[in-house]
Design brief:
The chain is α+β, with helices and mostly antiparallel strands and 276 residues long. The protein is 47% helix and 18% strand. It is elongated, with a radius of gyration of 31 Å. 25% of the residues are buried. The mean pLDDT is 84.
Length: 276
Amino acid sequence: MALKRHFQNWPEEWPWGVSLYYNPEFDPALNLYFKKPRATIRVMSTGKLICMQCKSEKEVKRAIQKTVRILSKLGFVLKKKIEEPEIINIICCANIKRKIGCGIIQKVFPKARKGKFGGESFILPLKEGTIKIFLNGKLLGLGFKNTEKAKTTIKKIAEKLYLAIEEFDKERAKICKLERVDPAIEALRKYGKNLAPEILLEEAELLIIRYYPKRMRDTAGHTPKAIAAGALYIASCKLPQILKLSQEEIANAFDLSIVSVRNASQTIKKTLNIEP
C-alpha cells in the first residue's frame, strides 16, 4: 500500500538513465531501471531490495545507493541504516568454441545429468553453484556467491572439457583412419585402377584424406566405397583435360547406383566447400 500511495509522487521528468515500472495488478514490486550502471532494482513492500543485471559488487552498491536516494525523494522515511548487500546469485558464462558430445560430458563429469527439456544441455551440480553445459560449447554458471570462485570454477570445467575433446579427437582420428580413410583409399585403388589414370586417383585420394577429418562425427551415411567413387568423380571434373568420367561410368565400375555416386560427391563438395 505504501508503494501505491507514493507512486503518484514520481516526478514526470527524472534524471537521465532512470525509469520506473509499477503495476500492482501484475507485480507487487516496484521496478527501477538504471542505464548507468545497468541494473534492475525490485523494491518489495517488506523493504527488501533485489538487485539484478549488475556485473560487479561495486555496481550493485552504486545501484542500491541510487535507489535509496530515489526512495527518499519519493517521501519514504528510511529509519534504519542500509545493510551491506548480500550476494545470492552470480551468473557467469564461458565458451570453448567446440561442439561437445554427450559421451564426453558423461565421461568427464559422471554426476552431470541431462536437462529436462531435450538433450541439448547437461546440468552439473556443485557444492556451491551449478554449471549448465550446452552441446554447442557454451557453459553457464549459476548460484555462485563469490565472483572469483565463479570465474575459477567455470574456467576449470571449460579446460577439462576442452582437453577431453582434444583427446577424443585424437582417438577418433586414429579410428577414422583405420575404419574409413584406409578402406576408402583401398576401394579407390581397387575399383578405379582400370578406369582412371594415376593422376586422377592421386587427386581423389587427396580429397578423401581432406574429407574424413571434417566428418569424423558425421559420415552422412556414406560407405567408404561411395566416398571413393564420389571423390573420383570430383577429381575428373577438376581435371577434365586428363579424363572426364560420367557418374554412370563410375557407378558401374564401383558397383554402386548413380544416386549413391551423386550424393557422395555432393557431400564431399559441401564439406570441403568445393564450388560446382
